[in-house]
Amino acid sequence: MKTIQVALLGFGTVGSGTFEVIMNRQREQFAHKVGADLVVKTVLVRHPAKYREQIPDQVQLTDDIDQILADEDIDIVVELIGGLEPAKTYILKALAAGKSVVSANKDLIAVAGREIYAAAAKAGKDFMFEAAAMGAIPIVHPLMEGLSANHIEEIVGIMNGTTNYILSKMAEEGWSYDQALAEATRLGYAEADPTADVEGLDAGRKVAILANLAFHCPAVFDDVYIEGITKVTAVDIAYAARFGYVIKLLGIANKQAEGVALRVYPALIDKRHPLASVNDSFNAAFVRGDAVDEAMFYGRGAGKLPTASAVVGDIIDISRNIVCGCEGRLGDSTYESCCFLPIDEVENPFFVRLTVKDSSGVLAQIGQAFGDANVSIAQVVQETLSAHDLADLVIITHSVKERNFRQALDAICNTEVVEKVESVIRVYGDIR
């Protein structure tokens, strides 16, 4: 029986999880699942001696990528070191050396994915990256294969477990953002520096990757409009609930009348939508296509073994291709040209919370400013505040282009009745 040999680049959280799944958890299953044996031959780390006690003697340790590239027995290189460089160079060199590649590197793929796809197609090798999109949740392969009979119209998802945990706890417990972040950090959901998560950068990279697959277009990270959750308050969450919504950080890629819109931001979503019930650190992706109609993929979006599950799934898929002599069968699917809409041209409803003077005629003035900018009001709640003759005024609009809404907001701020714009949050979907 053929033995397919793998090199791991990196032995951190995901690298060690991948090693465990291959060498321990699935060791006896590969002959049945693949039709070949599968082993890790070499692990690349910066300081080999540091890892010798963790890795059996029969597995080679090296700090020299050229040793792996020159080894003709290595069939698959698995890049788990992260970052842009040297990861990109290692991947391109591995493909050029005739080795298929698996990566979990969303930072790199969101920036240079198309270059890597093209290099893999030229080499006739596989480049697979299921774990780079949504961790353990299978979404890359479904888009490339199972849903390939569709014109995908939209992908919307909860794509970051840290922010979903924070917003879930703010809703369930009435915590402030700072309280929820502190608990997420204590539990290990949030990094010591949570910027990539809470500012939406992590989700933005995933949107770029999925847009490539869904719309066959050369989307990159810079094409995604991004806002984080740091300005969302418990007050906003409470008002959203009164209107029948929850607030989630959503990654959205969809086709609108004038082009493709890619964005990440906190948004109100109807409590009846399947994504509204995705809580804690779980993630999900909701897909609409012209043939499939709707489908949702749900699970753990991160973690040592959940991410390793996706990585090893790719390794198994490539191994099957090697056994059958059909590596490179998927090729480069980014063959469409797309117009990416600036955020000003994107349409959706808005939730806006204002502190206003608690006096007659306030709503009339604000309604006039909205009407002059062609913004239609769908729902309104006004509540008197305890101090200074002020009131909370919360408005949800019908769907409108961002630039029209901003024009209306500027006009409102210039009236004498508005003391402060407390929050502006977009609404996902049509107003019921």
UniProtKB/TrEMBL annotation:
Entry GO MF terms: homoserine dehydrogenase activity
Catalytic activity as recorded in UniProt: L-homoserine + NADP(+) = L-aspartate 4-semialdehyde + NADPH + H(+)
Enzyme Commission (EC) number: 1.1.1.3
Known cofactor(s): a metal cation
InterPro entries noted in UniProt: ACT-like_dom_sf (IPR045865), ACT_dom (IPR002912), Asp/hSer_DH_NAD-bd (IPR005106), HDH (IPR016204), HDH_cat (IPR001342), HDH_CS (IPR019811), NAD(P)-bd_dom_sf (IPR036291)
Listed pathway(s): Amino-acid biosynthesis; L-threonine biosynthesis; L-threonine from L-aspartate: step 3/5; Amino-acid biosynthesis; L-methionine biosynthesis via de novo pathway; L-homoserine from L-aspartate: step 3/3
Domain ACT: start-end pairs: 351-426
Keyword annotations from UniProtKB, A to Z: Amino-acid biosynthesis, Methionine biosynthesis, NADP, Oxidoreductase, Threonine biosynthesis
Pfam families per record: ACT, Homoserine_dh, NAD_binding_3
Enzyme class: oxidoreductase
Family: Belongs to the homoserine dehydrogenase family.
Protein name: Homoserine dehydrogenase
Organism in which the protein naturally occurs: Peptococcus simiae
Native organism taxonomy: Bacteria, Bacillati, Bacillota, Clostridia, Eubacteriales
